[in-house]
Structure formats: structure tokens, C-alpha cells
């Protein structure tokens, strides 16, 4: 708890102290802290516990913790033992559920960390399939569905990332081949999105926000090729296409609906 307090204090100084020398010192300490083994436990505890600091914005500390885990997973995830990876997976799923209602930037960071963790679990069987099984536990509550939506949105983007950020070899990327791993879950994802698009909500603002999340997720999967196995003559009648066309009539979702349709046209010109 003492180390967690020091992290919160350093984050507060870095973001709010008026003296540049103090901000520089805080930044140096935080950079060094991220390199330690203790950073795993402290960052995980910040995201999963109800510990609060009265003198610092909780979001700033929690966002920093999520970034720590994402970076450490990217750089050191391949060295984690299977038990440690399972424990971290469960902790990140808990954090995703906890922050499913926001702030959205924090939920995105947590989901990116989850995706990065999956990329480093290739030696333990079918990690993406394992993740989908884990996501089912979040679908029991509406808040959990929001977390699942964000997770499914970032997952194709991370898997398809061609940069060297995650330090994944070409052999490992082939293990995540579209047919065998990601796109083998297309029917499950599309059915989940269809169910979400049919749900009713308490307010128009809530409905608009959910529609944008669904469209963002659908866009990620369209870019990954989720409709590649569907015959062209059946594509136009897909229920999610009706949802996209209906979204064109709503100003808050018009831009994302256009992106989805543009991507579909570029991939399925027929």
C-alpha cells in the first residue's frame, strides 16, 4: 500500500505541480518504477481494488496503472509464466468490468492490455479462443456488455497491427491467422453485435452512445474481413447492414455508419 501511495503522489506531482523540477523528478521516479517487478502487482492492485487517494484524481492514477500494464505486457509479457498470465487475465477482465461505464479512455487502455496479453499467450494453445470464453462471463450484465464491445473493437486492431510494437515474430502472427483464430469467431461476434443493436435503453443519449460503440466494433471486424465468407448476394440482407443503414438517419452515428459502408464497398465491390 505504501508503494501504491508513492505512485499516486508521483502521478499527482507530474500532472499538477507548478515547479518543473518537481515534475521532472516525479517523471524520472515513475519511469524507473515501471521497470521494476513490483510494478506488476501495484498497477494491478490500483485497477482492481477500491483504494482511493483524496489528494489526486483517481482517473489519473488508474490510467497510469493501465498504461504500465500495457507497456510491461508488450515488453515483458512473453517472459510471464502461465499461472501469472492467467492471474493477470482475470485481473484485467475484472478491471474491464469495473470501468465499463467509463472513463472510456481508461477502458480502452485496459482492453489494449488484454489484447496484448493474448498476443503473448500463443504458446499456451488458442489464446483468442480462451479470451472469447472469458468474455462470456462479462455478458451477464449490461455494464459487462459495454466492456465486451470495447474489447472486441480493439482486438482485431491489435492482432492485425503490422508494426513491431508488440515484438511478435512472423511465425507467431501466422499462428493468429484470420481463418484459424480471429475470424473463426466471426459468427459469434456478429450475433453479439446483432443482439446489442436490438436492445432498448433508458434514454436517447444512452442509445446513441451504444449505437456508436456497436458501429466502431463492426468497423474493426469489417476491416479484419468478417464478411469475407458471406456470399455477396446474402450480404445486403444481413441484419447488421440494416442497422448500419438505419444509423445513417441519425446525426450522432452518421459518420461511423458511412465509414462502415465505405469499408464494405471497398472490400466487396460486387
N- to C-terminal separation?
A: 60 Å
Rg, Cα atoms, Å: 20 Å
Mean pLDDT: 81
Query: Could you tell me the number of beta strands?
Result: 0
**What are the secondary-structure elements, in order, as H or E?**
HHHHHHHHHHHHHHH
The number of distinct helices, counting runs of at least 4 residues, comes to: 15
Q: Show unreliable segments.
A: 162-166
Q: How much of the residues is beta strand, in percent? A: under 5%
Structure, described:
This is Exportin-1/Importin-beta-like domain-containing protein. It holds the Pfam family Xpo1. InterPro entries: ARM-like (IPR011989), ARM-type_fold (IPR016024), Exportin-1/Importin-b-like (IPR013598), Importin_beta-like_NTR (IPR051345). Residues 103-261 form the Exportin-1/Importin-beta-like domain. This protein is mostly helical and 270 residues long. The protein is built from 15 helices and no strands. The chain has helices at 2-16, 20-34, 38-48, 58-76, 82-98, 104-119, 127-135, 142-159, 170-175, 178-182, 186-198, 204-224, 232-235, 239-247, 254-267. Helix 1 packs across helix 2 (20-34), helix 1 packs across helix 4 and helix 11 runs antiparallel to helix 12. The longest helix is centred in the last third of the chain and has 21 residues, at 204-224. It is elongated and about 60 Å long. The N and C termini lie far apart (60 Å). Mean pLDDT is 81; it is low at 162-166.
